[in-house]
Amino acid sequence: EPAVTIVSGLKDTVVSEGDDVTFRVQVSHEGARDVEWRLQDVTLQNNEMNEISVEKGRVHTLTLRKVTEQDIGTVTFRVGPHTSRA
């Protein structure tokens, strides 16, 4: 089974306080395991404030709901040894 790589990485985004923001990463293969989203070195879980999903099998998305000033920082997506940051 070939290793999963990042085809299209994260893009820097500016958003207003109180808005939602979505980050997308496209990977090379469907069914990628060992995937992690982080904000400021904190691993994110799927919950009411962070929506983590996979679209069409290869596009991984993270939506941060109603962002605040405390959400400013680096978002990181990791799959295996590959990372993308914004």
TrEMBL record:
**Which SUPFAM superfamilies has this protein been placed in?**
Immunoglobulin
Residue ranges occupied by any Immunoglobulin I-set domain in the UniProt entry: 6-79
Q: Where in the cell is it found?
A: Cytoplasm
Keywords from UniProt, A to Z, are: Cytoplasm, Disulfide bond, Phosphoprotein
Record's keyword annotation contains Kinase: no
Keyword check for Phosphoprotein, yes or no: yes
Q: Name one Pfam family in it.
A: I-set
Chief localization: cytoplasm
Provide the Gene Ontology terms for cellular component: cytoplasm
Superkingdom assignment = Eukaryota
Name of the protein in its database record: OBSCN protein
Q: Which organism is it from?
A: Notiomystis cincta
Which gene produces this protein?
Obscn_1
